[in-house]
Amino acid sequence: MSASNAQDPAAAILEAKELKKEFVSRRGRERVRAVDGLSFSLRRGEILGLVGESGCGKTTTGRLIMRLIEPSSGSIKVEGFGAVSLGRDEDFAYRRRVQMIFQDPYASMNPHFKIKDVLEEPLLIHRIGETRAQRMEMVSQVMEKVKMTPTSDYMDRHPHMLSGGQRQRVAIARTLILRPSVIVADEIVSMIDLSTRAEILHLMKTIQADMELSFVYITHDISTARYFTDRIAVMYLGRIVEIGSQDEVIDRPLHPYTKALIAAVCEPEAGRAGIMRELMVKGEIPSASDIPPGCRFHTRCLFATEECSSLPEPELEDIGGGHLHACRRWKEIAEAMNEKRKS
Amino acid sequence: MSETTKAETAPVLCVRDLKLRYFTSKGAVRAIDGVSFDLYPGETLGLVGESGCGKTTTGLALLGMPSPPGRIVAGSIAIDGTEIVGISDRSLRRDVRWSKISMVFQGAMNSLTPVYTIRKLMAETWREHASGGQGDAAVEALMLRYLHLVGLPEKVLDRYPHELSGGMKQRVVIAMALFLEPKVVVMDEPTTALDVIVQAQILNLLKKLKRELGLSYIFITHDLATEAEIADRIMVMYAGLIVELGTGEQIFGHSEPRGSLPGSSLRELPSEPRRTSLHPYTQKLLASTPRLHKRVSELAFIPGSPPDLLAPPPGCRFAPRCSFAKAKCVAEEPPAAEIGPGHLVACWKAREDPEYERQ
Amino acid sequence: MSVKDGLQDFKEFWKEFSKVKQGLVGLGLLLAFAFLGIFGPLIVPFPGASKHWRDIDYWQDNPQAAPPAWTNFFSARKGVSSSTLAAITAETEALEGGASIASFVFDYPFFYDQPPRDLILRVPGSGQVPLSVTLERPDGLRAELFREQVELSEGSDNRVSVARNCAQAAVEFVRGRDAQLADGMNADLIKPVDIFFAKLGPDILGSPVTLKGDYKIEIRALIVSPGFRVGKPSILVSGHVSGILGTDASKRDIFTGVVIGIRWALVIGILTSVISVVAGVLLGIIAAYFGGVADWLLSRLYELIYLLPVLPFLIVVSAIFKPSIWTLIVLICAFFWTGSFKTVYSMTLQIKEETFVEASRALGSGKWRIVFKHIGPILLPYSFASMALSIPAIIVYEASVSLLGLGDATIVSWGQILESALTQGAVINKLWWWVIPPGLMIALMGMSFAFLGTALDKILHPKLKTR
User: Fold this and answer.
1) Are residues B213 and B278 both part of a single domain?
2) Are residues B44 and B136 in the same domain?
3) Distance between terminal CA atoms of chain A?
4) Domains in chain A: how many in total?
5) What are the chain B neighbours of A271 within 8 Å (beta carbons)?
6) What is the ipTM score, two decimals?
């Protein structure tokens, strides 16, 4: 197994190709295509945001990357090493490279463990550090990295004695202690207070720069994605419909779904209370067990034509500068909206 | 809401100096410590703050149902002229709850009993609160009417909660809060658990219902962006007190309402001179809210944590975490003072108190 | 983890544990039980009780169904307490021809309102020895209790019971004072001890009044040949009250029985509950967490055993196999593991879905690590509670089996004491000292385990600690 050249700064540290995951219900009656042909790559030191609404498959993608579940087809490679169907040792080695921070800062830690136990666990699993003193030293170091100081104050506490923000720091520390290359962050600030969110995101930015980590940042809140990510991939019903730098995707969205998402976001500005927000979708999200034919978004798209449902699903098209999207009619739609704005 | 109209119409909800304590084994926690505000007909009054500030407690108090061991110890709440502090639970249930004021509770959509159909759930809520003995047919017609109002099809009645999406469940909850035709609806984080697009849909729905049914809302949330979307006036709560109360304009500053179509060129918001007279906490909240259409290099955060409400500090409760705190702030608690038309702030700095300025 | 780490962990655990009063009480009780269990049999008044529990001869000196000695403190009509008399003189008088007379005098101050139940004399020695026993009463009268030649032998009991053997002597004693009364006496029906200790008078048969004062008993033995020997005799007064906890209908000292029973209670109770709960918990976790074949097998096994009625099964098996206590323990374990299995199974199903289990997996944790480090500790409080709660039931099962005659006849357990109490009419006869102690012990032992379990729960579930 050869690793792709880690010296090349543009080399992908994580690559997903045509990733698919299908869940079959017990009696085989329902086949839920949670992830339905996902491809993206993550460069070293980059933060990629995976944005979408519930049911779009972003959480499943996170679990696939973490090898908590196996894909139905497709491949994942981290630093050139394949991550599908690994043997015991390879799986072990993989886990030192890829780590995850979970959404619920309380549920992700065993309430009976003390903080020092929580942070020692990865070391024990991977047999790092020969004596407890050595391990505790590493635990101390990583706690300082996430600014939980003085460490002696926190080491012996249990998770429920910490605030949500503090617990999430511990969760971050837990991923760092193994010095991974890729971190998957699944909705890590959605259960934390507003004023602490920024603190956590700021801390992660600092650590990311300091340790040259690569992040897959999963969120439904596109505003935090703006603050934290370099690139954003927008997911709908198990596929990426648009991907590009965060400026491009947020300021110049091309896919109608992305446009609808962005149009729906509220901002802290005056004058909105009396005005209805114009939504650019109709209907409800279809079930992932019954994905619409052709372009899967066509059932909700305001601009869909007959072609959109009859022609095969559009692939991601690169319009330049790393901005890809999957909409056939993007030019016509952009023109139509320009007309509307002028009038 | 224009000011002339405000002067003419009487408020539909009047809260004066409300105080509520939680009587725990460790002592009395001063969860709400002197809160006053008015709600006018047809207005949405937002109540914003972080967890533990007392906003949910206030919402529950407005329905006369503080969660034990909480008890209202002082102050008055008058709904449509009727005082509810001190009256018996029976009278509350009979005359006030759901008929004058109702509530969409936090997480209500996930608390729908999973083994009952929507029809059964709605019928039960109706029977709980309605006084008359309406026949089944009349109740059914009523349920259909409200389902239609919230944009749900008839077949929803026969579904179970788990068969509905988040947005649909929330619409059911809203319908249930309305069908006794209250004047005031208190909503506690009604859109927090919903996806972005669904959230926008529900907010639109709420605006529409308010207009069509002549309702007034108290909208509780921790998210300033959501508040901006729906609230006419906003109260900011911290450690059991209201630290700021103002219109959307006053809190968020001048800016023309943005076109709601995305893709318009990035607009830098104009410099906001009015911002300096905001309460420092409100400023920090604003600065820590991530923005989609504005480039923010640093998101603010507030170090430290709110004070222990068993024994709050004698001065301003935000002083320990405030970057502008001076001696006066620590010594004396600032009362709410008017610094603009209808704009109240409880801060020595914001009201340019001379003693503060000198220090 | 090194020993040093383990020691430090234990120190931390102990620091936490000692803060919870309940746990200390429970632990204290258990330690007391353990101590008594180990050393008790050495200090009880009847050290051989364990071997001789069902040996009538061993207990023959005790009064039957006698309340504890301290009950005298509360009653107006005090019962005679059993005691051993002290010899005040012991002489040997040599006679011509190589013979000698050994004489011993015992002193007995007697001030009770009731006569003793019995006087039991024991004369160690060997050979054909004429013995005479004389009672000197406070009123000056002398009664010859016994005059016979007895066959003494080393190792045999050489026992004379006044109540049994001196009826005729009692008649003669009365005849000496009132011939007419003596004629009306039937040696088979009278109580000799009552007579010897009663004031002389016409009522002596019907309602005797005790004669209080100093009594002396003299034993004289004629040793005719140098091969014969008479050692120091002992006289035991068998009273109405006896011992710390009285005696049962078979004259067994209950205190001794209860103390010996501690050992067996600890062994049966702890061993069985620990084995069955540990087995049930482990199997429950394995079935629920690993799933698949293990789950299928174990669940079917559970269903099979769960359906079997325990007692009939135990009866059948006990009838076929030799009912030793160890067999019984194994059998009870085989049934009891199902109790914790099912609960642990459903708890594990829930726990394995927890995010922190997933997080541990994401770190690379193997399945066994999750079982022992994450799932196990959560189930510890339940396990201890389960152990505590099953102990009384186990003891009762053992007692029930004993009740049917299928128990292990070589052991003494509280269940057995209770069983004999119930079958020999302790409740009807109000022999409370027979019923309450064993029952109380069962309750105390269960309680100490329950306290221990609660304390451990508080420590292992930190949220429950009051701050």
Assistant:
1) no
2) yes
3) 60
4) 1
5) 248-249, 255-257
6) 0.87
The CATH number of the domain holding residue B185 is: 3.40.50.300
CATH code of the domain covering residue A78: 3.40.50.300
Q: What is the pTM of this model?
A: 0.76
**Closest among B87, C118, B272 to A270, alpha carbons compared:** B272
Asked if A167 is an interface residue toward chain C (Cβ–Cβ < 8 A), one would say no
* Pick from C1, C364, C462: CB nearest A125: C364
| Distances, alpha carbon C286 to alpha carbons C347, C367, C387, in Å | 12, 10, 19
Q: What domains does chain C contain, in order, with CATH numbers? A: 3-53+253-464 (1.10.3720.10), 76-238 (2.60.120)
Domain that holds residue B354: 272-358
Same domain, B13 and B152: yes
Neighbours, chain A (3 or more CB pairs < 8 A) = B, C
Number of domains composing chain B: 2
Contacts of C456 in chain A (CB under 8 A): none
Pick from C410, C388, C284, C393: nearest CA to C343: C284
- On whether residue B343 sits in a domain, the answer given is yes
**pLDDT truncated to tens, each residue of chain A (343 aa)?**
334 434 455 678 999 999 999 998 877 788 899 999 999 999 999 999 999 998 899 999 999 999 899 999 999 988 877 777 778 888 888 888 899 999 998 899 998 899 999 999 999 999 888 899 999 999 999 999 999 888 888 998 889 888 888 999 999 999 999 999 999 999 998 888 877 888 898 899 999 999 989 999 999 989 989 888 999 999 999 999 999 999 999 999 999 999 999 999 999 888 888 889 988 898 888 888 888 998 999 999 988 888 888 888 888 888 888 899 998 888 888 888 888 888 7
In terms of Cβ atoms closer than 10 Å to its own Cβ (0-12, 13-18, 19+), residue C224 is: middle
**Domain that residue A61 falls in:** 12-252
Residue A125 to residue C369, Cβ atoms within 8 A? yes
Cβ-based contacts of C381 with chain A (< 8 Å) = none
A179 at interface of C, judged by CB pairs closer than 8 A: no
> Dihedral sign, CA of B274, B275, B278, B282?
positive
Cβ–Cβ under 8 Å, residues C407 and C416: yes
Domain contains A158? yes
Is A106 within a domain?
Answer: yes
* Residue of chain C minimizing CA distance to A174: C363
pLDDT of residue A137: 93
Burial of residue C84 (CB within 10 Å: 0-12, 13-18, 19+) is exposed
- The H-or-E segment that residue A232 falls in is strand A231-236
Residue B231 and residue B335 in one domain: no
Q: For residues B66 and B190, state if they share a domain.
A: yes
Q: Within this chain, do residues B177 and B322 fall inside the same structural domain, yes or no?
A: no
Distance of CA B347 to the CA centre of its chain: 22
Are residues B74 and B206 part of one domain?
yes
**Would you say residue B160 lies in a domain?**
yes
Contact state of A91 with C364 under an 8 Å Cβ cutoff: yes
Q: What pLDDT, in 10s, does the model give residues A179-215? A: 999 999 999 988 888 778 888 988 999 999 999 899 9
What residues 344-383 of chain C have any CB closer than 8 A to a CB of chain A?
Answer: 354-356, 358-366, 369, 373-374, 377-378
Q: Does the beta-carbon distance from A221 to B290 stay under 8 Å?
A: yes
Pairing verdict, β A47-51 and A231-236: parallel
Q: In this structure, is residue B266 part of a structural domain?
A: no
pLDDT (tens digit, 9 = 90+) per residue, B325-347? 888 889 889 998 898 888 999 99
Does residue B205 lie within any of the structural domains? yes
A163 and chain C: CB distance < 8 Å anywhere?
no
C465 touches chain A (CB under 8 A): no
Q: What angle do CA B226, B227, B232 make, to 5 degrees?
A: 140
